[in-house]
Design brief:
The complex is a heterotrimer of chains A (330), B (300) and C (323). Chain A is α/β, with parallel strands linked by helices. Chain A has helices at 47-54, 81-87, 99-102, 109-118, 125-138, 144-149, 157-169, 187-204, 215-221, 239-244, 249-256, 297-301, 322-329, and strands spanning 5-16, 19-31, 36-40, 62-71, 74-75, 92-95, 175-179, 207-212, 224-229, 232-238, 260-261, 267-268, 307-309, 312-314. Chain A is 35% helix and 24% strand. In chain A, a hairpin with a 2-residue loop joins strand 1 and strand 2. Chain A is globular and about 65 Å long. Chain B is mainly alpha-helical. Classes of the chains: A alpha/beta (330), B mainly alpha (300), C mainly alpha (323). The A-C interface holds A 55, 57, 59, 85-90, 93-94, 96, 98, 101-108, 112, 115-116, 119-120, 146, 151, 153-154, 164, 167-168, 171 and C 216-229, 232, 236-237, 240-241, 244, 314-317, 319, 321, 323.
Chain lengths: 330, 300, 323
């Protein structure tokens, strides 16, 4: 079966003094129709940048420098700005992270939703109104007419995130990219939003890419997971297999650790000593080798490629759980 | 007191600001040195009617001694403008100094005393903000005229203009210094100094003044540009410095009379000189503001 | 909401009261009505009689109350210089000033809004850089220098427009307008351009900064991610957000614009309020100066108050729900 979305060799660079510094390198993955793919990693791993690069939402100094992106039969990377505009929102919905800043503060919710639908669907005024009310109800907000007339500041954070979701989905996209959809919310609200996302995913049957640093979210939502480290995918596997038999030492570290915010509010993986290298500051060989317990001369010299290992892919010279993985497969 | 060389660090890596600084030095030298060698063209002895309306050197009838031409009274424009520039600079600098002293004192008092005194002074500042410096200077000028009568010497006229402009500029200094005082007043080291029985004056001199130097320098530079414009405007309108001791604005006012008849150089040269002066001061002021305000640094 | 409006109105009235008092004190201490109304050889008794008749012997506050009461009725007293009613002098010149200000505002909006949006949306383009470079002139050049340069070029060199006066005017219902004649339009172009230059560059720079900032915001990115067209994005989604700070800053610059109108009127011998004010300053006509002081204060205060009270129409964040 051909996947709905297929990404091959995606590269994004930060243009610094007209020199490109790689931020995302050689990222390839597929998403099947109706599937939920999780992309996990620490802050700065490049997962959000990779997500934004899919529909060219990058703003300078970031720029996509290479990569084939196919959505169905269409190549997003070859589209004109006009064609791309029709894809954004229309075929690929994007759920933003922070509901406090993602909504236009001076326009009503109804106006923002009507403009979004009008950009993609040929509908009468009455039909737009009907669908808007319907969407507000579907994302679980009470009193839809009032919400449509409200300005963003009149809603709470959780309510706004529901509005953001409705806005991303209201033009009925086939693929939804959700970039840390719960990170900015109160813990109590996070679970509700996840439940809502899962329900809408089932109702609409759209595929989803869920970008998160939270493995709990992944376990709850995703069919498959891609782990990113320093701008590259280091392991992909079905969710079950990743949790039970991680191949990459970084993945194991992630699983062993409970992420907690550091002094600067960034999510840090406590169980792995050291820090992820910054952009333009990559070590030779495997980018993880300075923090890896199994690192040897090979790891320091040669970067491992993603290699198939019993139904999963991992980029490691000394993968874990070879035996156990075989057991799970069997 | 030990003399210190001006610190040039703020100009590093900023060619525009450095160029402006050099330009300002050249202009100041021009304004100070030419009057040393050339007699005052605005005294009776300086007139030479024979040379009146001499065009610039490249036009027909130009005179190499007067490369930029001469005005209606035969004054060499090069000399006349040096004298005019000197007056403009003097008035501008003194007006800013008055604004600085007045605003500084009121700001210190407001910030340090707090309470009603503070409220009164800042309320006054709010009211004054309804009137731009230029308009206020005109009003003050008119009021002073009404008080002392119109007969006045050049020196009096100059003093009035300096005062009028200076008074119009106090608000910004006062606000800046007041807010610095408010910030510093509650710092631990100031409280400590107060507990150990240091006088208010000592605390201000030792802890507060050093902290407000940078913003005050920035406001002073910006105000200098505005003060020069204000003076030029007043003089151009005929309510500033008279032509017996002209500033650039008075020169332009005089030249404007001959614009229609084709002797453009009498007005245009002082206009251009004023433009260069003001732009140089402003570029320098903008740069200093960005330099001392790290929040804005790096923004294009 | 209503409470806030009432509070702001009261504050404005208080400031206007303070300004009026300052103006009154100026007239009271510096004006000399006796010298104005009596012959120089008047006797002491005559002076005494007039003092009583004018109420000059009454307490200060009573005289101030009377002065205040006269303001809304248009009873502004008599100019010491021309012996005319100040209200009449102002009324005769107000239309010229208002027309000049209106045309100048129109020019600056028509030029500055597209230019500001363009430089904000494409800040790196060559044309935008050129606009920004030229705009430096607008904020730094003294107003009268601009006027003189315009006269030198368009009036003296090219002979397109007159350099002074209003041209032919027509009286329409007590309003003397120059906007209905060809020569009137010819005459207003250069002064209006001179006066508009400052506002124009001010609006361009403000809009540009605002739009550049808003263009980087998450809500614009989200709107783009939903497939909204660039035109709608900038002209509706971004501009709506940029409008409020721009209007506020412009209202705060009103005082400057009034000051520049004095200068502009003087450069072009425009028969408006500014010229009247300038003549009064030259002649030390303290009553007209004081009235002008009040006039400018009221215009500035009232416009700023209006702008503030109208904010909620632009920005729903400031709109309270009545539910």
């Amino acid at each position: 079966m051909t996947p709905l979305l297929s990404v091959r060799g995606l590269e994004v660079a930060l243009i610094r003094d007209s020199q490109p510094v790689p931020v995302v390198a050689n990222v390839s993955f597929d998403v099947a129709a109706g599937e939920v793919l999780g992309i996990v990693g620490e802050s700065g791993a490049g997962k959000s940048v990779a997500g934004a690069a899919l529909i060219d939402l990058l703003s300078p100094p970031l720029r996509r420098t290479a990569g084939e992106i196919s959505l169905g039969a269409d190549r997003l990377d070859r589209m004109t700005p006009r064609q791309l505009r029709r894809v954004r929102g229309g075929r690929v919905g994007f759920i933003f992270q922070d509901p406090m800043t993602s909504l236009n503060p001076v326009l009503t919710i109804g106006r923002q939703m009507a403009d979004t639908m009008r950009a993609h669907l040929r509908l009468s005024r009455a039909e737009i109104r009907r669908r808007s009310l319907d969407w507000i109800e579907r994302v679980g907000l009470p009193d839809p007419p009032r919400v449509l007339d409200a300005a963003p500041h009149e809603l709470s954070g959780g309510q706004r995130q529901r509005v953001v979701i409705a806005l991303a989905l209201c033009a009925e996209p086939e693929l939804v990219i959700a970039d840390e959809p719960t990170t900015a919310l109160d813990v109590s609200v996070q679970a509700q939003i996840l439940t809502l996302l899962r329900r809408l995913h089932h109702e609409t049957g759209s595929a989803m890419i869920l970008i998160t640093h939270d493995l709990g979210v992944v376990a709850k939502m995703c069919d498959r997971v891609a782990v990113m480290y320093a701008g590259r995918i280091v392991e992909t596997a079905p969710t079950d297999r990743l949790f039970h038999a991680p191949r990459h030492h970084y993945t194991r570290g992630l699983l062993a650790a409970t992420p907690a915010p550091d002094a600067a509010g960034r999510m840090q993986v406590a169980a792995i000593p050291g820090q992820m290298p910054g952009v333009g500051d990559l070590p030779t060989g495997c980018a993880f080798h300075p923090r890896c317990p199994r690192a040897d001369a090979l790891c320091r010299e040669i970067r491992p490629e993603l290699t198939p290992m019993q139904g999963a892919l991992a980029a490691c010279h000394h993968p874990l759980n070879a035996a156990r993985a075989a057991e799970v497969t069997a | 007191m030990r003399l210190r060389l001006p610190r040039l660090a703020p100009l590093r890596g900023a060619p525009g600001a450095a160029l402006s600084a050099v330009l300002l030095v050249v202009l100041v030298l021009y304004a100070l040195l030419v009057p040393l060698v050339a007699p005052d063209p605005f005294s009776l002895g300086g007139l030479s009617i024979m040379d009146s309306f001499t065009p610039p050197i490249w036009a027909e009838g130009g005179n190499p001694v007067m490369p930029l031409g001469a005005d209606d009274q035969g004054r060499n424009m090069v000399t006349a403008m040096a004298y005019g520039l000197r007056t403009s600079l003097i008035v501008g600098v003194f007006a800013v100094l008055i604004g600085l002293v007045l605003g500084g004192a009121l700001g210190l008092v407001a910030g340090y005393a707090g309470g009603r005194t503070d409220a009164l002074i800042m309320r006054l500042a709010d009211v004054q903000l309804a009137y731009p410096a230029l308009l206020l200077a005109m009003i003050i000028d008119g009021i002073v005229n009404a008080t002392i009568g119109e007969a006045r010497s050049t020196l009096q006229a100059m003093t009035i203009v300096i005062l009028a402009i200076g008074v119009a500029f106090w608000v910004q200094f006062a606000r800046t210094i007041r807010s610095s005082v408010l910030v510093e007043r509650n710092q631990d080291y100031v409280s400590a100094a107060r507990i150990t029985g240091r006088s208010a004056g000592a605390i201000i001199g030792r802890h507060i003044l050093p902290n407000v130097m940078a913003p005050v320098l920035v406001i002073a530079t910006t105000s200098l540009g505005l003060a020069i414009i204000a003076e030029a405007t007043l003089s151009f309108l005929g309510i500033g410095i008279p032509l017996t001791h002209p500033s650039l604005g008075a020169l332009i006012r005089n030249g404007a009379n001959y614009l229609q008849s084709g002797e453009w150089w009498i007005a245009i040269w002082p206009c251009l000189l004023l433009m260069v002066l003001v732009v140089a001061v402003n570029v320098l002021g903008d740069h200093l503001r960005d330099y001392y305000n790290p929040r804005l640094r790096g923004r294009s | 909401m209503i409470l806030h409006a009432v509070e702001r109105i009261l504050q404005t009235l208080l400031v206007i009261l303070i300004i009026s008092f300052i103006a009154f004190m100026l007239i009271d201490t510096l004006g000399d009505p006796l010298g104005l109304l009596l012959p120089p050889d008047a006797s002491l008794a005559e002076r005494q009689a007039l003092t009583e008749r004018l109420g000059l012997d009454r307490p200060l506050l009573a005289r101030f109350a009377e002065f205040l009461a006269g303001l809304p009725r248009g009873d502004l007293g008599i100019s010491y210089r021309t012996q005319e009613e100040v209200s009449g002098m102002i009324a005769a010149r107000l239309p010229a000033t208002i027309e000049l200000a209106a045309v100048a505002l129109l020019i600056s909006l028509v030029v500055a809004i597209p230019a500001g949006i363009y430089t904000g949306v494409f800040p790196r383009s060559r044309f935008a850089r050129a606009i920004m470079f030229v705009s430096i002139a607008g904020v730094t050049l003294p107003n009268f220098v601009v006027g003189i340069l315009l006269i030198a070029i368009f009036s003296v060199q090219l002979g397109w427009f007159p350099s002074f006066g209003r041209g032919a005017t027509i009286v329409l219902g007590g309003w003397e307008t120059g906007l209905l004649t060809r020569s009137g339009w010819h005459a207003i172009i250069l002064p209006a351009l001179t006066l508009s230059l400052f506002q124009m560059t001010f609006i361009i720079r403000l809009l540009r900064t605002q739009l550049m900032e808003i263009g980087r915001s998450e809500h614009i990115r989200f709107a783009r991610a939903r497939g909204l067209g660039e035109a709608r994005l900038w002209f509706v989604y971004a501009l709506r957000n940029a409008l409020l700070p721009t209007i506020t800053m412009l209202a705060l610059q009103l005082g400057n614009i009034i000051a520049f109108s004095v200068v502009t009127e003087s450069v072009f011998a425009w028969p408006g309020i500014g010229t009247l004010f300038l003549q009064s300053v030259q002649a030390a006509d303290i009553r007209v100066i004081a009235i002008y002081l009040i006039f400018v204060g009221i215009v500035y205060m009232v416009i700023n108050l209006l702008v503030e009270l109208l904010y909620p129409l632009i920005d729903p964040r400031l709109r309270q729900r009545h539910a």
